[in-house]
Automatic annotation (TrEMBL):
Source superkingdom: Bacteria
The protein's name in its UniProt record: Uncharacterized protein
Annotated organism of origin: Geobacter hydrogenophilus
Length: 66
């Protein structure tokens, strides 16, 4: 038994945020289901920004038990 980390990324565009967050959730859920992940240790979201400080993306990190 060990620990692993998987990182997911999603571009965020104005007026499409809820749709993109749903897509990101679906990607993570598909990964968990398709890889038989039994126990998630941590989930963390962090925004990415452009040179003006505007949010342009989201990085989601999932730590899980192998």
């Amino acid at each position: 038994m060990g620990y692993k980390v998987k990182t997911f990324g999603m571009e965020i565009r104005p007026l499409k945020t809820m749709q993109e967050l749903s897509s990101l959730d679906a990607m993570v859920n598909d990964f968990v289901t398709n890889n038989g992940v039994k126990r998630i240790i941590s989930v963390s979201d962090s925004p990415t920004t452009d040179d003006k400080g505007e949010t342009i993306g989201l990085v989601r990190v999932v730590a899980y038990e192998d």
